[in-house]
Amino acid sequence: DANRQISEYRFKLSKAEQDITTLEQNIGRLEGQVARYKNAAENAEKVEDELKAEKRKLQRELRTAMDKIEEMEMTNSHLMKRLEKMKANRTALLSQQ
């Protein structure tokens, strides 16, 4: 009976050691996954920061371009008015002659 119990305990010990080994392997695998996920998250944050900076830069460029367009449209409008005045003056001068 004692031998049967010893054999049973040895089997249980062996099984527990196998379970410990399996759990240790799982820990190692999970730690590797955590490290990969952490690196991926850090890279994603870096890319996000770069994209935000690029977006701000592009928005500044867009505002500058829109300001230039507005300025050029005003200049164009002013020049068109001057041209119309010059045409009117020329027409008036030609009609006086």
From TrEMBL:
Coiled coil: 6-89
One family name in Pfam for this protein: LRRFIP
Ligase among keywords: no
Key words, A-Z: Coiled coil, Wnt signaling pathway
BP GO annotations: regulation of DNA-templated transcription; Wnt signaling pathway
Protein family: Belongs to the LRRFIP family.
PANTHER family: LEUCINE RICH REPEAT IN FLII INTERACTING PROTEIN, LEUCINE-RICH REPEAT FLIGHTLESS-INTERACTING PROTEIN 2
Protein name: Leucine-rich repeat flightless-interacting protein 2
Organism per entry: Anhinga anhinga
Gene: Lrrfip2
